[in-house]
Amino acid sequence: xxxxxxxxxxxxxxxxxxxxxxxxxxxxxxxxxxxxxxxxxxxxxxxxxxxxxxxxxxxxxxxxxxxxxxxxxxxxxxxxxxxxxxxxxxxxxxxxxxxxxxxxxxxxxxxxxxxxxxxxxxxxxxxxxxxxxxxxxxxxxxxxxxxxxxxxxxxxxxxxxxxxxxxxxxxxxxxxxxxxxxxxxxxxxxxxxxxxxxxxxxxxxxxxxxxxxxxxxxxxxxxxxxxxxxxxxxxxxxxxxxxxxxxxxxxxxxxxxxxxxxxxxxxxxxxxxxxxxxxxxxxxxxxxxxxxxxxxxxxxxxxxxxxxxxxx
Length: 312
Prior knowledge:
Layout: H1 3-21, H2 27-52, H3 60-82, H4 88-118, H5 123-142, E1 153-154, H6 162-180, H7 186-193, H8 195-200, H9 205-231, E2 233-234, H10 241-254, H11 259-275, H12 283-297
Antiparallel strand pairs: 1-2
């Protein structure tokens, strides 16, 4: 069995085991673990755009918002009717699967529609456009009464579990790693390294950028759906520019184009605020100092090495 397949299977089996037999585990630790999983999905997907394809997106939180809101709308609409079925738990999780898929596909559509015109640009111009589109998405939700307006949505069923979270993590990492290391995926790296050279050998840089942007938005939508059904309440303030900036910081700290590195950075920067809770009044200062120190000491990323022939 290939290494990636074995890692995928092991992650899914462990996540299912924890979900089924982890009832005695501390709820706080489970919540933190699921927050880590959501962050990993977001940064691995953003790394496809910012790291592997060489673009600079600042609107990833907007796609997360699309997935969070639309998956929540699905479960809030149909979940009450499933309570009276013969197998309500199975019915709820089946609904959750389709709600996550709806959120992911909707985010992918948003990514495609945004990426198609904007990805002909590059550098600072692309960053500004993606930032603007991310804010537009947030403001649209903020002014849509059917989706709670500025108050947001609440009362979603608590369907996010360790199994759902880390199963999605495994699929995300597996899909993006296999894609980047495939023959087709080498086109992303070619576009990142030199667009003119890529065009000269028959590759279409804009097409590769749009594919990367759309796929990254899909996984961000899945992460948004998991986040919404973990927190059980969402509002537009949770998907603002600062959320996108936090994700970009994780990618930068982990090393652009380095999947293992960005996973480590996501884990570290999600857990760090929890460790700093005893000094809550100084937490943000210490957090900023640690970020600056990491950037100065490890500007190439936290983890930067090769395993076998493929760079992870």
